[in-house]
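Lecture notes, continued. The same structure-token format from the folding unit now serves as the input rather than the output. Read the line below as a description of shape only.
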């Protein structure tokens, strides 16, 4: 009798422990990220050719088929991208906006933003396209794997979390129309370079004067 009671007691304890483990396992759910758009983004959501030029949307539609006028990109530097860290603890945050001649800010509410790692490939885009205004050939599709995404809120504020140490081009586009003095809505692309170190928080606004 004592032996049966002992076995029953042991069996009861094991059952209790097993039930507890199952309950804890069921209660665990993936932590939802703060950048929902970035997490849900896939290659079909983004036409990364919008990193190819520094034009308004209307200008892009007019010139997008003029391949002869597009600048040739350097070969995609696989080894450079292979060496990039994929995880990190840094934060990049700020606001995106354009300013008119009276220094009034037009915030980029709901704007999608990118962090593009600084490499010889993105350096060429920044130098030749963003700064010099040349339209470039379509970006290599492999670039998508190394971009980070987020979206600004209704006040134009944005944040990237879990950013690896390194240098990046911070890129976004503000859409505006009559509030910017345009007859029809236009998209104004803005880009700047930022550097991230360890778990530091980098505060950087993405801003540009309206031409």
């Amino acid at each position: 009798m004592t032996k049966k009671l002992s076995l029953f007691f042991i069996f009861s304890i094991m059952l209790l422990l097993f039930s507890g483990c199952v309950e804890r396992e069921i209660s665990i759910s993936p932590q939802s990220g703060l950048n929902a758009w970035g997490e849900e983004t896939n290659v079909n959501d983004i036409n990364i050719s919008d990193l190819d030029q520094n034009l308004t949307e209307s200008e892009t539609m007019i010139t997008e088929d003029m391949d002869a006028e597009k600048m040739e990109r350097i070969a995609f530097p696989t080894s450079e991208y292979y060496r990039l860290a994929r995880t990190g603890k840094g934060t990049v945050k700020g606001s995106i906006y354009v300013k008119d001649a009276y220094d009034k800010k037009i915030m980029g509410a709901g704007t999608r933003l990118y962090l593009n790692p600084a490499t010889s490939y993105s350096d060429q885009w920044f130098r030749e396209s963003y700064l010099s205004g040349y339209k470039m050939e379509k970006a290599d599709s492999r670039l998508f794997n190394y971009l980070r995404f987020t979206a600004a809120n209704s006040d134009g504020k944005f944040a990237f979390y879990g950013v690896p140490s390194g240098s990046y081009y911070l890129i976004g586009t503000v859409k505006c129309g009559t509030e910017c003095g345009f007859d029809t809505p236009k998209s104004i692309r803005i880009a700047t370079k930022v550097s991230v170190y360890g778990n530091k928080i980098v505060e950087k606004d993405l801003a540009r004067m309206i031409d």
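Point for the exam: Residues 90 and 199 are 4 Å apart (CA to CA).
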